[in-house]
Amino acid sequence: MPVLLGLYVFLASDCGELPDDPTVSLSLVAFIYFGALVLWPFFVHGLAFHQAPHGILWLAMFAVTALFWGFIIEWLFLVKTRLWQR
Questions:
Q1: Less crowded by CB within 10 Å, the N or C end of the chain?
Q2: Contacts of 33 (CB under 8 A, 6+ apart)
Q3: pTM above 0.85, yes or no
C-alpha cells in the first residue's frame, strides 16, 4: 500500500504529466503508463467523471486498488506453488 500511495502522489503531482519536450526519457514515459495501469480505478473514474475522487470515495478506491493487486499477487503465488509441486 505504501508503494501505491507513493505512485499516486507522484502521478497526481505535476511530475506525472508528460512534458512537451520531445526528448523525454523512455523510462519516465514507461513509469507513467505503469502507474496508470496499477492505479486503474482512478483512471476509470477520471474517464467517467472528468475529475479526481474526493474524500471517502478516494479512500474507498485506494482500498479497492490495494485489495485487487493483493489478490492478483496472492493468486500468482498460489499458481507458482501448484506448478512447483508437480
A1: C
A2: none
A3: no
